[in-house]
Amino acid sequence: MYPIVKKEQLADKIFLMDVKAERVAKTCMPGQFIIVKIDEEGERIPLTICDYDREAGTITIVFQVVGASTQRMTGLEVGDSFRDFVGPLGCASEFFRRDRRFKEEKDFIRGWWCRSSTGLSTGEVDARKWNRCRRDRWF
């Protein structure tokens, strides 16, 4: 079981949860996702990993209520648990160097590009990864 350690309502139908999932937190990378299942009868729900804390062993997920399963997720409170929390899945965001200028400033970070299919939800984590890459001179 994977207990919820924090729950916050960000907007009318948008919720944030921190979930204790140590194995996932140890190995996840920006841009990956997890699949949660509330209980044995529930359906599998894919959600983007928005943030992680390797030391605390937690994963942050943000979801919007769009159907029956995400509506049921809003009923979970701190201390409740997910039955399944599978991940990390998918490819991590990729950083690569581009030498030419592009049309929009939002498309680059100081000459380094982030390629991710997950959009803004991993922006902060992607920026931390980019800083680690630059600091460790991976490129």
Provide an overview of this structure.
The protein is built from three helices and nine strands. By secondary structure, the chain is an alpha+beta fold. A hairpin with a 7-residue loop joins strand 3 and strand 4 (45-53). A seven-stranded antiparallel sheet has the order 6-1-2-5-4-3-7, with helices on both faces. Helices cover 19% and strands 39% of the residues. It starts with a strand and ends with a helix.
Instruction: Note the beta-strand portion.
Output: 35-45%
Annotation field: number of helices: 3
How many strands? 9
Q: What's the N-to-C terminus distance?
A: 39 Å
Unreliable parts = 105-122
Structural class: alpha+beta
Strand arrangement, major sheet: 6-1-2-5-4-3-7
Query: So what's the overall shape?
Result: globular
The chain-level mean pLDDT equals 77
Helix content: 10-25%
Alpha carbon gyration radius: 16 Å
Sequence of secondary-structure elements: EEHEEEHEEEEH
Main sheet characteristics: 7 strands, antiparallel
Features:
39% strand; two-stranded antiparallel sheet; 139 residues; globular; alpha+beta
